[in-house]
Amino acid sequence: QRYYEIIYQFMGLVADSCYDISATDEEKAAIGMDDPATVITFEYNDAHYELYFRSLQENGTYYTESNMFPGVIGVCSAETLKFLDYTLIDWVDKLVFQQYVTNISSMNITSDDVTVDFQLSHGVSEDGKNTPLYVNANGQEFTTEQVANFRQFYKTLLSVTITDYCVDDEYCKMSESELQSYISDKSNAKLILTYKTLEGKTSELGFYP
User: Fold this and answer.
1) Which of 41, 76, 92, 169 has the greatest count of CB atoms below 10 A from its CB?
2) Which residues neighbour 201 within 8 Å (Cβ) at sequence distance 6 or greater?
3) How far apart are CA 191 and CA 207, in angstroms?
């Protein structure tokens, strides 16, 4: 999601104002553009593009330049280029589970209270427009009503989002090494969700108190 947001910003990226249209190397150095804080490169239609950005100034703006127009220095607001100030968590998609139910062949949910193995199979309606879902849980075939309930449960999984990442702060008192040791022991997990796609790829999500 963040990736597409940034791509869309690039498509319509326009500087708020122009600082210089023919800046020399010395003039670039005077404003910190001789050693940009951020360089973004990409390929488009067989052309190589580079965008250079100075670190954020005290007035809340960035100087910017591109390899397509050397010497042309633009000025952009922090709001226009807010992705330059993203932390790691901002780049990570906040949805932790993103799979169409039609792409899942099996799921296993293990917690202190229950262990359930779901086997999913997908049919095709006569008109080819719908894909009926069939669910088997621990060997028991689900009724139509139970499948409907499973779909609601699946929607709940799709809505689980990350709110922040764990660092040594008020929300997480462990150091990075302590955290790695803690989550490596699956007995600490409140719940573990393992799922397998139709392509055969198996993934696991662990939820730790």
Assistant:
1) 76
2) none
3) 5
